[in-house]
Amino acid sequence: VQLQASGGGLAQAGGSLRLSCAASGRTVSSYAVGWFRQVSGKEREFVACISRSAGTTYYTDSVKGRFTISRDTAKNTVSLQMNGLVPEDTAVYYCAAADRGTLLGVTRPDFWGQGTQVTVSS
């Protein structure tokens, strides 16, 4: 599957952004799909994912209650709605997919999209 991420940009603290990950090749429900983020000089970290088939969602603790991941099978996309942004959310965000149930504990997904920069100003 090929993944195309979009939607990054600049937001003020407390603001919102929406990221989208468009998949081609297979349906998004055939994979666990999610988002990771990386700050320069640090390891890439898991943010959120939606499980294969059932669509159960998982989040890292720091974004729970602020970010929402969703799947649109008609458009073959997975989106990440980010509300209540804080400067610590500033990072390059990567869409990822794996041929398994979830992305929990996965450090090397099978597929990566290109990164999209999210910058939150205070």
Strands, helices and their partners?
Blueprint: E1 2-6, E2 9-12, E3 17-24, E4 32-38, E5 45-50, E6 57-59, E7 67-72, E8 77-82, E9 91-98, E10 111-121
Summarize the structure.
Helix content is 0%, strand content 52%. With 122 residues, it is mostly beta strands.
Question: What key phrases describe this protein's structure?
Answer:
122 residues, 52% strand, 6-stranded mixed β-sheet, single chain, mainly beta
Task: Describe the protein's architecture and organization.
The chain is an all-beta fold and 122 residues long. It has strands spanning 2-6, 9-12, 17-24, 32-38, 45-50, 57-59, 67-72, 77-82, 91-98, 111-121. The strands form 2 sheets. It has a 6-stranded mixed sheet with strand order 2-10-9-4-5-6, with no helix packed on it. A hairpin with a 4-residue loop joins strand 7 and strand 8 (77-82). The model has no long low-confidence stretch (mean pLDDT 96).
The counted number of beta strands is 10
Total of helices: 0
Gyration radius, to the nearest Å?
13 Å
Gap between N and C termini = 37 Å
What spatial order of strands do you see in the largest sheet? 2-10-9-4-5-6
Mean pLDDT: 96
State which percent range the strand residues make up.
over 45%
Low-confidence stretches: none
* Strand-pairing-aware structural class: mainly beta
Helix content: under 10%
Shape summary: globular
Q: Could you give a short account of the major beta sheet?
A: 6 strands, mixed
Order of helices and strands: EEEEEEEEEE
